[in-house]
Amino acid sequence: MAETTSLTDPPVLSARVAPRTESGRLGSRSTVLSPLGDKALGFRDTIFRFYRVVASAQRVVGSLTSTCDTLPVARKVTDEQTTSQTEREVGKAIPFEGGTADHRLRGSVWEVFWVFLRMGLTSFGGPAAHLGYFRGELVQRRRWLSDSDYADLVALGQFLPGPASSQVGFGLGLFRAGPFGAIAAFLAFTLPSAVLMVAFAYGASAFQGVVGSGIIRGLTIVAVAIVAQAVWGMARTLTPDPARASIAVIAALGVLLLAGSMGQIIALLVGACAGLIFCRAGAGAVTEMIRFPVSRVAGWICLSLFVILLVVLPPLAAATKWGAIDLFDAFYRAGALVFGGGHVVLPLLQAGVMDTGWVSPDQFLTGYSAAQALPGPLFTFAAYLGTLSTVGPGGIAGATLALTGVFLPGLLLLIGVIPFWNAFRLRAWAQALMRGANAAVVGVLAAALYDPVFTTAITGPAPFVLALICFVLLITWRTPAWAVVAVGAAGGIALTFLPGGVL
Q1: DSSP alpha helices (H): ranges in 65-163?
Q2: What would the pLDDT profile of 327-358 be if each residue is shown by its tens digit?
Q3: Which end of the chain, N or C, is surrounded by fewer C-beta atoms within 10 Å?
Q4: For residues 238 and 399, is the Cβ–Cβ distance under 8 A?
Q5: Region (Disordered): which ranges (predicted)?
Q6: 10 Å Cβ neighbour count for 469?
């Protein structure tokens, strides 16, 4: 028996089903098939009667107060056989360990906004670190949902294209306070770094002279170390066996041979198909997912809007020749096709805005490095690019278009898939497909590490040594990204005073 606390803080019990009769129902003690004997059965009945009283008391308290939703109420998942009224009463009264939470709105929009704003100002370290911050603050400290429910939401974010940590944050806000809570969570977590990236874009032109150019040079070199760290970490997680490692290598070679976004798309499609063939082994058991206030109709609307924008925007941009549509289309396609989030968006944005000449390679890598030193989602790099882009309105309007474009597809997909996710992810072929696609993501990012990151930043022995130092700081010493960026900027200034031969 679990230790009891209070009526508004019910105990957690494991979801064990009481012994059953030969007919399959929970019957009297005389017909129960149990080796425990009458004493154990009597003890069990006493426990169920106790929690039935607790359940009744909770309903009385809930009718007298307006705070009846202090904790998520979980369902006990059993087989298809019927359960007794006593068990149903207990299921209403207590959350069962390992169960899944029913949807109930429990918090206010303002609560969600302020919690996520604080995390948006302090969450350094990239998408993986953000997921750790969310778990520590919202699962362990505030107990908005259970660990298993949080893991389900993270799995969904990893499965979909788009920024995984932002999608998880959006989903947490949706679960806590409904649609407006989801919007509040997204804005609060995204705005701090977006505003800082726009400010950096406006101030980048001020980096003139020896010191300014040295800082920019150092930031481009730091980008080599940061992307290399991302490739290293993702390869260890997503390519743990020869089959997936081979998919990653083939994807990298394909992207290098077939330049542009088309090569990246083909690499992801080929990787997914290869996963269906070679990655079916090892499919793990999955559980039922947390419920959200999203209907199937709303899901179909969001999925349809996602597809319509993806199909219509390119010909519309070509027909109108309007820079704003061109800009929005480039960032929308990047957000719609990026699997893995975070650093994986780099090659897609490179193809959309750098290869087309909208920003220079130095501007691109400088902004990418600066984004590593800021809290919040890495996708706010789009605000920097939209501000500086020579296509579109530029400035704050360009930043707004770019941000909306890069985040919108991932959020539309999250809302659209939530009502159908459970049935899909139980299928072994779907899990195999995503294993192959994720392995191809590693190859795509490795290709981007070589070109343009390495080829642009490493022009001699000294920059290579500085990049290696930054990489060791990240991998071996686990130095925070913002500190490594500071080291790189200082190293870039030092490089300006070295003889030209080592640069």
Answers
A1: 85-93, 109-122, 127-134, 147-159
A2: 999 999 999 988 766 677 888 888 889 989 99
A3: N
A4: no
A5: 1-29
A6: 16
Residue type, 114: W
Q: What angle do CA 433, 434, 436 make, to 5 degrees?
A: 70
8 Å CB contact between 324 and 393: yes
- Residues 397-405: what's their mean pLDDT? 97
- Least confident range of 163-172, 301-310, 480-489: 480-489
pLDDT confidence of residue 148:
67
Selection from 54, 91, 61, 88 nearest residue 75 by Cα: 91
Is residue 431 within 8 Å of residue 190, measured between CB atoms?
Answer: no
Of the candidates 76, 140, 68, 132, which has an alpha carbon nearest to the alpha carbon of residue 105?
68
Q: Which band of pLDDT confidence, cut at 50, 70 and 90, is reported for residue 499? A: confident
pLDDT mean across residues, the chain: 78
Amino acid sitting at position 188 = A
DSSP string covering 358-386, please? SS-HHHHHHHHHHHHTSSS-GGGHHHHHH
User: 263 with 347: CB under 8 angstroms?
Assistant: no
**Rounded Cα distance, 485 and 487, in Å:** 5
Contacts of 12 (CB under 8 A, 6+ apart): 2, 94, 95, 96, 97
For 409, the token pair is 């597809």
Residues of the chain with pLDDT > 90, as a percent, come to 39
Residue for token pair 């882009």: 389
Burial 14-26 (b: 16+ CB within 10 A, else e): eeeebbbeeeeeb
State the amino acid at position 101 in one-letter form.
Answer: A
DSSP state for residue 100 in the 8-state scheme: E
**Cβ 239 vs Cβ 248: under 8 Å:** yes
Average pLDDT over residues 159-177: 90
Contact indicator for 334, 352 with CB cutoff of 8 Å: yes
Contact 453, 223 (CB under 8 A): yes
Buried b (16+ CB within 10 A) or exposed e, 103-133: eeebbebebbbebbbebbbebbebbeebbeb
pLDDT tens for each residue of 187-212: 999 999 999 999 999 987 666 677 88
Cβ–Cβ < 8 Å for 316, 332: no
Q: Are 490 and 248 in contact (CB under 8 A)?
A: no
**Angle made by CA atoms 425, 427, 429, in degrees to the nearest 5:** 110
Task: Tell me which of 60-69, 98-107, 400-409, 454-463 is least confident.
Answer: 60-69
CB 25 within 8 A of CB 82: yes
pTM: 0.65
